[in-house]
User: What shape does this take?
Amino acid sequence: MNDHILIATAYDSLVRIYVAKTKNLVETSRNIHETWPTATAALGRLLTAGAMMSFMNKDDSELLLKIEGDGPIGQMIVESNHHGEVRATIKNPAVYLKYNDSNKLAVGNAVGLGLLTVRRNPHLKNAFTSSVNLVNGEIAEDLTYYFFLSEQTRSSVGLGVLVNEDQSVKQAGGFIIQLLPGATDKVIDQIEKVLEDIKSVTDLFESGLDTHGIISKLANGTEKLLDIKPVRYFCSCTKDYYFEAIKKLDDLVIDEMVHEDNGAEIICQYCKTKYHFSREELEEIKESKKNI
Assistant: This one.
């Protein structure tokens, strides 16, 4: 089955659960950005979280997740929408660190400490923005802290990316469990017992469970499936978009591109698509500004 997200309620509708399978999404991102293993794991976790969080609103809103850490990765940005379309960018994709004691990919060290920012409807003037300090850079714990502090929602977040020896993505996915109003201590105890038996998301996939099996495990068999949402890596950039972007530049900058560079090439930071603008097209852009 292709990448997707399952959404369900559980424990007598006192809990909402999201479970994601994102192997193809993360592998596509790896190929686009040419990430090394630890950067693949870090960005893959953020991509998976962004995909799930885009379905937390009932409306057709968009979501932006940004991590700015002091580790070697630097900044990561993920954008997603209610159609399951996700894209990302990363400042330094060439990061490969492991923890000495476990030999696991050292995502926390690669990300470091800094800020996690969540912005809903990022392209609108009335965008909702909230930032919290990173707890440890492992991303799942950072998002758990964000939900508690900024959205007053008790949550448990699990995110994982398993990388093959050839650096391709073997497994990727995640879950978010959120308590709804009225959740009792008994329900909380049940969830905590379930989580104690889970080492990692990728272990669940490696054991042979699919997303339905994982959601059933998390719900202890009480789940009521609400929806299945497809997910894919998709960038909506077009040449027209960059045409309008160049139009906002000063005439002197456009003249420099015309006379010194003999044109312009713009590379989309999300999908690496190259858009070339000839001298004639730049002159056309400059002329169109007179009609504004």
In short: The longest helix spans residues 37-53. The chain has two domains: 4-233, 239-291. The domain at 4-233 is CATH 3.55.30.10 (Hsp33 domain).
